[in-house]
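Internal tracking record. Fields below are filled automatically when a chain is submitted to the structure queue. Please do not edit lines marked as system-generated. If the sequence contains nonstandard residues, flag them in the REMARKS field before resubmitting.
Queue: standard
Priority: normal
Entity type: single polypeptide chain
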Amino acid sequence: ELRLASEVNFGVWKIRAAAGGGDASRDVRVENYVLPRFELAAEMPRSWVLVDEPIAGRVTARYFFGKPVEGNVEVAAKRYVGTWEVYATANGPLSGGSFDFNLPPAGFTAGTAGAGGQGTVTLEVKAVDSTGTEGTSTEVLTVSETPVVLSLVAGTKVLKPGFPAEVILSSEAPDGTPADAAATVTVECQDMFLS
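SYSTEM-GENERATED OUTPUT FOLLOWS
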């Protein structure tokens, strides 16, 4: 922490740190803090969508003193396909501080290992009120092929012939919450020879 004086020179400051024979520096901007004038959010029925499901929701914008924002809003949907690309937009006026949007399905998205193979869509929301003040918000949605995600977890590290092997089957919604699901499990065993 660095406590600043009540009157300070604004602009770019350089912070330097040295320890153990090494040093590093970083530029930081010092300026007056301006409280955002309004709060902006996108609300969807859930935090995930199916790959072929339209994305519907509502943008809400309210000043911090409670009054709804009047102005214009744009929602840009970006999907990850190796790089982020905008695939759909919706825009229009805020009415009573809200705007309902309906975007087409995400279609193909590249899954990542960190998301269990599922894809991602971000909704970048930008609103401008009648005075020209701009607010932004970003929402992230998981894109899944199915409403239930099954996972197999091995209970043992090594498989040996003649010894029982424990495998746990879990079922979750795409957002990671547990899901009740009936499953049929077929076990196949093959002899594998490594050369």
